[in-house]
C-alpha cells in the first residue's frame, strides 16, 4: 500500500503538476459500476462543474458530474480511468462541487500499470495497488490527497462508498520520459510535448490561459486552450520556460497562434540553455547562460509559424524560453529535435 495524506500544506505543491487524467490530454473513463443519474464521462472534463437549479432529466436532477443511484444492496461503486498520459501520480483531487446531500461518505483510489490494453472491468480483479486508502469526504468542496509513490501508472480506479456523486476527478502527476524510445525513433520528435515528458516550468504571466496549455497534444480547440497573458501596461515582454523531455538538439520550431486574432503577440524569439541542476525561479536567475535559438521574428494571427533556417544556435539544450513581444496569446509551441 502507498501512503496518502490530505495535509493542506502540500496541496499547492502537487496541484501545480499536470492533470494526467484530463480529457484534454486523452484521459477516458472506461467503465463504472453505475452512472444512473449523471454520466461517468463528466469526471474528467477540464472545466469546473456547474449547477443549473432548474434543469432535470427523466431520471431526476441534472448534475454535472458522475452520480450513481442510491445503493439498496451491499457493496460500493467504482469507475476505471485510463490516464491520458501515464506517469507518476503526486496527488488526487476528488471534487464534490454541488454535491451536498448526495456525495459519497468515503473514497479510495487504486492504480495499475499495464501496457497490454486495459485492465479487467471487475472490482475483484487482481493487480491493483491502493494509492489512496479509504478517506472521509466532504460535500461541495475539493478533497485533496497527496500520493507518495514513484511508480508509473497507466490506469486508476476511483472507489466511492457506498454511492453518490463526484463532480470532477483530477490526477496530478509527472510524465516519465522514455528517453530510450525517443532516441530509438530516429525521427525528429517534439521534445517540448507533454506526452513525451516536456514540462512548462514557469511563466511570468498566465492571466487568461494556463501555462501548461502551451505543450498539450493537438491544436487548441478555442482561444481558452492556449497560453495567454494580460495586456502589458509597462515596458518589457512576456516569457515562458519549457523543460525538454531530454537534452536535445533543436532542428525545427512551430509557434502556433491558432484562435488568437486580435491578441496574438507582435513577434517572438526563443532562447535555450543547458542546465546541470534544477532552477526553481527563472525570473530571478539573472546569470543563466541563455543562447539565442531563434532571433526575434514577426507573428501573424491564428496561424502556424514554422522555423528551420532561421534557427541560430541549436543546442544541446535542456530548457527553452519562448519570449513574446509585448504580450498576447500562443496556443502551442513545438520544438522538434533529437535527444542527445
Q: Can you offer a commentary on this structure?
A:
With 340 residues, this protein is mainly β. It contains two helices and 23 strands. It has helices at residues 11-15, 179-184; strands spanning 4-5, 18-19, 28-32, 56-57, 60-61, 66-67, 77-95, 106-112, 129-136, 142-147, 152-161, 165-166, 168-175, 189-190, 199-203, 227-228, 238-256, 267-273, 291-298, 304-307, 317-325, 329-330, 332-339. Strands 1, 2, 3, 7, 8, 9, 10, 11 and 13 form a nine-stranded antiparallel beta sheet that branches. Strands 14, 15, 17, 18, 19, 20, 21 and 23 form an eight-stranded antiparallel beta sheet that branches. A two-stranded antiparallel ribbon has the order 4-5. The longest helix has 6 residues, at 179-184. The chain is globular.
| Whole-number total of structural domains | 2
Number of strands: 23
Distance between the termini: 37 Å
Secondary structure class reads mainly beta
CATH second-level architecture of the largest domain: Sandwich
Number of helices: 2
Q: What is the CATH topology assignment of the largest domain?
A: Jelly Rolls
* Run of helices and strands: EHEEEEEEEEEEEEHEEEEEEEEEE
Biggest sheet details: 9 strands, antiparallel
Q: Unreliable stretches, pLDDT < 50, 5 or more residues?
A: none
The level-1 CATH class of the largest domain: Mainly Beta
